[in-house]
Design brief:
By secondary structure, this protein is mainly α. Helix content is about 95%, strand content about 0%.
Length: about 80
Amino acid sequence: LYEPSSEQLLVELLPKHISVQILNSFLQQETSEHAARMAAMDNATKNCTELIGSLTLIYNKARQAAITAELMDIVGGAEALRNA
């Protein structure tokens, strides 16, 4: 059975350990960046949904006002014809 000395073991394993630690740091940074992007996109999606709701309400109110104005014109014209 071959058992390497502690110095030889350290010489072989330390560079590998450092490489793994550096890789782990890069992977954690990438994961953090993706999580931040996902949170930002989630907030943007929620904001857009709220904006669409607000704009739809404004559009519907404007459309209803236009319909009401048209009906008032029609009723006014009918009244004018009836009184003439």
